Amino acid sequence: MDKSYEEFYPSFEWVRGDAADTLRVRLPGFERHQINVQADKAGGLRITGERPLGGRRWFILSQDFAVPEDCSVEGMQVKFEEETLWVTLPKLRAKKGKESLLNMAVAVLVLLGLALLTFCPESVKLVPWAVSRRAFGAWMKVEASDGEEEKRSGTKRNGERLVRGRRCRRRNRWRVTAIQRLFLACKSVFKGPGTVPESADVEMLHFLLDKMRPEDVGLSTDLLFFKSKSSSRGTPRITFATICKCDNFSMCIFFLPPKAVIPLHDHPGMTVFSKLLVGSMHIKSYDWLDPVTSSFSTPSAKLRLAKLVLDSEFTAPCNTSILYPTAGGNIHTFTAITPCAVLDVLGPPYSKEDDHDITYYQDHPYRKYSDGDTDQGGVEDHCHGWLEEIDVSRYLKMDGVAYLGPQLKNVVEDTVGSSSAVVRWGALRQQHTVALRLMKNLLVRPEQKSIQADKFLLPKMAVGSYSSCLLILSMILILTPCAYQLQPAEVLSLLRINRLLNYPAVLSRWNVDTDFCSYEANPYVTIICYEESITQLHITGNKSAPPLPRSFSMTLLFATLYRLPNLKVLSLTSLGLWGPLTGKISRLSSLEIVNMSTNYLYGAIPKQVSRLTNLQTLILDHNMFSGRVPDLLGELPCLSVLSLKNNSLSGPLPDSFSSLKPLRVLVLSSNSLSGELPDLSSLSNLQVLDLENNYFGPRFPSLGRKVVTLVLRKNRFSGGLPAEVNSYYLLEHLDISFNRYTGPFPASLLSLPSIHYLSISGNRFTGMLLQSMSCNGELEYVDLSSNLLTGNLPTCLISDSKNKVALYSANCFVTKDHSQHPLSFCQNQALAVGIIPHKENKVSGAKATLMIGIMGGIFGSIFLGMIIFFSLKKATMKPALNKSQRSLAEHASVGYSSQLLPDASYILQTMKLGELGVPPYRSFSLEELEAATNNFDTSSFMGEGSHGQMYRGKLQDGSLVAIRCLKLKKAPNSQNFRRHIELISKLRHHHLVSALGHGFEYYLDDSSVSRLFIVFEFVSNGTLRSNISEGVPGETLTWTHRISAAIGVVKGIQFLHGGMVPGLFANDLKITNVLLDEHLVAKISSYNLPILAEDMKCEMMVGSSSSGLREPNERTKYMDKIDIHDLGVILLEIITGRPIICNSEVVNIMKNQLQESIAADGIARMSFVDPVIINACCDESLKTVMEICLRCLSKEPTQRPSIEDVLWNLQFAAQVQESWGRYSHSSEESPLSPSLPPQSPIALSC
């Protein structure tokens, strides 16, 4: 029979003893044989057991207990009687011996203290003075003079360690825990009965409690108590653990099992802070409504009207609740939903003697006792209730347990008095402060010879009896443990820093209070301490502070700072420091942040800075440093911020900076640095680069793509902007003004995704802007002034908003204002970029006539020579048409004159023959082609399309080629024919299947061309469709490589449209005509060859297609939009991974589904996407591609984007995907990922 278990939670308490501690556990209903007590591996106790409840129901017990540190589980004794388990744990002998020694020391200390109070009652105030005097004296024994300090620095450090070790040998160093910090704060906030903490103190406690975690009080959610989901039968028992209790406040933790209730209870005259540490509970609270107005009459003397403040559920972690004596919900009730732990801080605590006793209440609806059980005005008041005092002693069960969390170090029992008290260690610290004031006036300032006893609250008797009292004090000092928050040597170091800085006004408090670690942070002085040492020192003076006196020494300053061994952050700004930065800064090996800006430091930056291996931030702005930037700075492994602006540094930036991988901010503005910048593209974390007002140049810096702020203002950069600037998708601030940039202005900078600030003023950018150009909506500042720009100012830059500024003066825009130059000015200046003559040279009439004559003679000779050359050329070309039937005209592309190629001047001159990795274009003989294809055998046949048959061939050098055979329907005009062949030879691009050469076959009768052979490079990795939808078995392209392939197709189309004038349009783009090479580079294999333009003209101008252009005139007008629509179909198949048959109805159906998926959320959108790429694509990247695809498929040609717009969006999608891929845990490890079973294609035919 299966058992049904219910968890049992026992009540327990620890009974402390001298020789042993005893754990008493109440186990009602249990018998001895049902209980098992054992020690776990961690040295704790575990009590387990079970007993029947009746039927199949059983109680199960499993409870863990933490053993006190001074006890051992070895030799424990277990006894069970009267349903109570007693576990006795003996105390450790070593601990006992140490406690005995400590008790003896305390007894001696008390006796000597009493003797001191008897014979010298006022001299007790000199105890901290003697401590400080002894430490200072020992330190001064090895203190060298200012001139000899560096020689004896080692001896001084040794002496300092000896003093510290001698005085602090018995000091127990303890870390300030969160509960300790809360306790100290409560001591300073709660002043006793009848007082309410000030608002600032309340905020401080509220902040500390909000940061409290269960672990801070020794709790863990893994405890069995917090894992229970059901309560035991009967009334759930509530337990509590008192952390501390004194006259002014108490701290307690309440543990509530599920369904446990603490009834409504008040806190008379008390301020309460409640923090839910673990679990969920319902809280309901009231405040008394006084005085009782006429509209709220009291029906009975036992009832009292209260206003509902809170009625909600809370789940940890949550904010701290604050209850004031008369507000905030001073009367509240807790109902546990799950096992809970609540930390309560009460000030003052409950006390019957002080009239702070607890009272319990029961609440009744307001309607129940209002006007004879009727509501007022027919409306029930849900905001009020009647509270009735009740007695809960019969059913409210609370058991006290021992607090086993982090102990409070400064809570001791006053065995002399009759009650416990809290000894405030802050008094010791205050006496220490007074002693240091006295010490400083005695020793730090030698010119002060007398002691003003009344100033330091020291009576004359104490001053006159030093010799008699110090004898007794010396005995006390041997046994008194060190209680300083800051080591004396560090206190003295700060005092000496104050003297070295000539006692600045911002450090005036240091003259009267040396409790440095208790200072509140402010904009001028901040001191952070950790474990009795200073870790951060921030001092900021007046920005106009003059240089310090001539006696100041940077060497002495850093020698003093060396006595702060744990210093991590050093900020000394606007203090008038002067002199060279000493190399001894390297001795402060713990430094992570150094800021010494706005001072008078000069000389070279010491190379020893590179020894600070932990240095993360170095700021030396607004000084007078000179020389070069140290090359060794590039070897700092953690440097992320380097700012050296407004100095006199010169020379180039070291190449070692290219290896500063963590560098995020580099500011070098307002120096005299020059030369080329090193390659910073490998600095993937660089976000800010400020090089303003230097002499860098001429090349634009090579940067990573994460740059956010780029300031190159007032340098010597020249040339055009690189294309990589358009890929800085995080760039927000770009300032390249007042340089020597030339060339077309990239208008895409206006629409960068994150751009807010753009300034290109003071350059020589050219180009025409259009009103229809787009801008980023977040663009706030644009300065285009003093360039050579023409056209119209984009509409997006014209705004009446005060938040947007657009400057464009001194250009040649078509505007109504008079700030623009005439158009001829920009045209003339563009011819001689940047060269504007200030004076016109006056040439005499005779010289001018001579120059005109000479130039006329030269041009005449050239013209006559050209006529003779072309006449001879024409005569030699006539016999070429009289060759036999099998002869081939071998005309290389370079063999035609420029006169026969009027359109060749429009070819992009940047495309060179050898840079694509393919051999130069040449002519082939028919014999070569027949040998390559085995006489055009059927085994070499690859297929046939609208542009002829395709054969695969192998040339004599072993290279594979594809040969297209075109049968011409009519004899072309010879001049146009040669012109088209020349143009084809220039169509060589990275994303086109480039032509390698051509060959002719002539008719026998009239020697006209019968067939044209065009030889292309062979691409062997299949089509784009075979790598996506049809699928190479087991593999398919990832999303990253799909975007890359789409970008390649777009770049190929861009070249076809703009690579020549007129461009090649209506290229019948299909995904099957896009091939992939061995590097997965997409290449368009079929495009509208010029040789077929006249032959295929009628076919291109008639018929309908899915592109939406049916009329011939419309197709002629929007020829470029046909390819955009075909590109949209290709993108659609890339996204879905399903073959799409070319049919307008099918495309429209898929287009509607695409539009719905874009509007849906991320999960619904993924249902439209190829399942292969779902887990390896960024949603933002995918959505960007889907949106541009939808625009490409627009029915109206005018609504389709330009090819440049498509390219920009795809590149942006690729960048987003790349950034996402770096931080995701995608399983992609190669360009190809395992594919799922292929989906059924859309089987609708054209």
Quick take:
The protein has 1246 residues and is an alpha/beta fold. The chain is 25% helix and 22% strand. It has a 13-stranded mixed sheet with strand order 21-22-23-25-27-29-31-33-35-37-39-41-43, with no helix packed on it. The protein has a six-stranded mixed sheet with strand order 15-12-17-10-9-20, covered by helices on one side. The protein has a six-stranded antiparallel beta barrel with strand order 11-16-13-14-19-18.
Inertia-based shape: extended
Query: Helix segment count?
Result: 23
Q: How many beta-strand elements?
A: 54
Largest sheet: 13 strands, mixed
Strand order of the largest sheet: 21-22-23-25-27-29-31-33-35-37-39-41-43
| Percentage beta strand | 15-25%
Rounded to the nearest angstrom, the radius of gyration is 45 Å
Low-confidence stretches: 121-174, 291-295, 373-379, 411-484, 833-848, 876-915, 1096-1106, 1225-1246
Binned, the helix content reads 25-40%
Chain-averaged pLDDT: 76
Structural class: alpha/beta
* Gap from first CA to last CA: 71 Å
Catalytic activity: L-cysteine + O2 = 3-sulfino-L-alanine + H(+)
InterPro entries: A-crystallin/Hsp20_dom, HSP20-like_chaperone, Kinase-like_dom_sf, Leu-rich_rpt, LRR_dom_sf, LRR_Rcpt-Like_S/T_Kinase, PCO/ADO, Prot_kinase_dom
Cofactor: Fe(2+)
Domain SHSP: 3-107
